[in-house]
Amino acid sequence: MTAIGSEMYTLSVNGREHHVRDSWIGESLLFVLRERLGLPGAKGACEQGECGSCTVIIDDKAVCSCLVMAASAQGASIRTVEGLGPDGRLSDVQQSFLDAGGVQCGFCTPGFIVAVHHLLDSNPDPSDLEIKEALSGNICRCTGYGRILDAVKQVSVSRRSTAKDGAR
Amino acid sequence: MSVAIPTSVGEVVDLLSRNPQATLLAGGTDLMVEVNLHGRRPADVVALNRVSELRSWSVDSSRRTITIGSGVPYAEMETGELARLLPALAEAARTVGSPQIRAAGTLGGNLGTCSPAGDGLPVLAALDAVIDVVGPNGARQIRFADFMVGVKRNALQPSEFVRSVTLPLVEGWQGYAKVGTRNAMVIATASVCLVRTNDRVAVALGAVGPTIIRATDAETWLAANHTMSSRPNTDTLAEFARLVRDASRPIDDHRSTAAYRRHAVGVLAQRLLTRSYS
Fold it and tell me: Which of B89, B159, B173, B217 could bridge across to B16 with cysteines, CB 3.0–4.6 Å?
């Protein structure tokens, strides 16, 4: 068992150990990522789990980081939007959002990118309905979602054709 | 403030015995909203996310029951074996929030909060679930009807917590329906769970009273006036819906009006009864 008072605790984010110091122990993971660890990719909007802008992956599950008490995520593997692309380059999902025009103001985009990575890692060939369902917890007020769906489908197709080429 | 991360039920019992005022943290989907938006500052938190016993479920085939740990997330109830064994719970789980919320939210959290709009609760009421509660004096079992005692109030004593929920594996049909302003990310305006077996139906209503309400008059009337093996006719459906509406005790609030909620539970119950024969 672990018990934490006001002392430091450690979070594993994008494969790196981060020490969280001098914080209030009840802070949300969203707040800690942005304000303590300098990882501002996850965005804060509703802070009640309704908008999906703060989506991160914890132990292979996509969750709202605003609803995670950061101290309780010790020992878990946390991935944020900053950790998805290889060596600081864009991931295929990020590139596809740009190509398809799935980004306008961009505020919701990091949450969508994380949710789409999570979807395609578990379901490489989702139907339109499955995509809509998987993204139903992410709200975009600019694009009308059409181009976001296009972006997801483009990645799905290109990943599967790459996998096929690799198998030849 | 402190955050404890126990890994066994015994450790949770010890922590709560020493500090009965500690706040339990399950999926965080209720507690963290209060922390983020309503200034709640819990003194001490016991996080349950690392207690593996709470995250498992099992079937007792001789007793024909299933026991679900209080920390199993809704996402696990939506598909697979759990969904096959408990179709109404799967339907209820699919209506919870969004995929992100269902990955975090748990039945234990629903029971701890005990909101009348909790999506899992009508299923527990209709199936006469038994809640397994653990505290410093050992375990005790509480029928769901005795567990939820009011709006956001339950029968837990200080230092007690919910270990699991046991439900019967029922021969027959079961389903769940919910009304809200949209499909995703919505708190129930009204919800109904209906279970139909050989000789009776059980109907439980959510978000239309201070607790989940069993429509016992509607259940009794249907059992006495309808042959369960045949499809109900229009008159039977109408009377059934009327009795369900009469059982509800809704209020006007920011989410809906009492009149709409009363109407809606009648429609949902009638729809589920019809669906049980298709």
Answer: B159
Q: What is the mean pLDDT of residues A66-81?
A: 97
- Domains and their CATH numbers in chain B: 2-168 (3.30.465.10), 173-275 (3.30.390.50)
Complete DSSP assignment for B217-266 = HHHHHHHHHS-TTS---HHHHHHHHHHHHHH-----BTTB-HHHHHHHHH
Tell me the chain A residues in contact with residue B183 when contact means C-beta distances shorter than 8 Å.
Answer: 136
- Asked if the C-beta of A131 comes within 8 angstroms of chain B's C-beta atoms, the answer is no
Put simply, whether the predicted model's pTM sits higher than 0.90 gets the answer: yes
Give the CA diameter of chain B.
Answer: 61
pLDDT on residue A6: 65
Q: Residue B264: enclosing H or E segment and its boundaries?
A: helix B258-275
* A71/B47 CB distance under 8 A: yes
Site from B54, B98, B101, B183 to mutate, A interface, most A CB atoms within 10 angstroms = B98
User: Which parts of chain B sit beneath pLDDT 70?
Assistant: none
Instruction: In chain A, list all ranges with CATH 1.10.150.120.
Output: 86-161
**For domain A9-83, which architecture applies?**
Roll (3.10)
